[in-house]
Amino acid sequence: MPSRTSEETFRRLLELLLAGDMSAIADLWAEYGTAEFPFAEGASPRQLTGREAVRDYLAGYPDLMDVQAISALTVRHTEQPDTIVVEFTAHGRTVATDEPYQLDYIRVLTTHRGLITRYRDYWNPLAAASAAGTLPELLGSLRPQAAR
């Protein structure tokens, strides 16, 4: 069976996200693939290396956010056949507050033989913290040590 394209892999990731199957999402990573979060702030990691690090990172996600729909999905192919740029909006509810949320994302995904080797997630940490009900904690973590 031929391996999935980068777009097919990403679409599978979205299906699994909607199903809340974080372990299966981690299985889409190559053994030493990376996940990068260039805009991460506070306690959020900037990079994860390896499938198991991704699995550990995603394990508690369903306890925080309940993703119920994906809209405005646009996939842009690049000159590198295994790399795509994806824009989309996630809709759902914050588990802790039961409040609805809507977050916009841009992701750059590179795969090899259908497995993710590099995943760059350009998300807005302020919007995500606001949706998760953790904005005060995030803002507190951004203050200089002397101000605490």
Account of the 3D structure:
- The chain is α+β, with helices and mostly antiparallel strands and 148 residues long.
- It has one domain: Nuclear Transport Factor 2, Chain: A (Roll), CATH 3.10.450.
- It contains six helices and six strands, in the order ααββααββββαα.
- Strands 2-1-6-5-4-3 form a six-stranded mixed beta sheet.
- Strand 4 and strand 5 form a beta hairpin.
- The longest helix is centred in the N-terminal third of the chain and has 14 residues.
Describe the protein's topology.
Blueprint (H helix, E strand, L loop, with lengths): L5 H14 L2 H5 L2 E8 L10 E3 L1 H8 L2 H4 E13 L5 E12 L5 E13 L2 E8 L2 H8 L2 H8 L6
Parallel strand pairs: 1-6
Antiparallel strand pairs: 1-2, 3-4, 4-5, 5-6
Helix pairs in contact: 5-6
What is the CATH fold-level name?
Answer: Nuclear Transport Factor 2, Chain: A
* H and E string: HHEEHHEEEEHH
The strands making up the biggest β-sheet line up spatially as: 2-1-6-5-4-3
Indicate the overall shape.
globular
Largest sheet descriptor = 6 strands, mixed
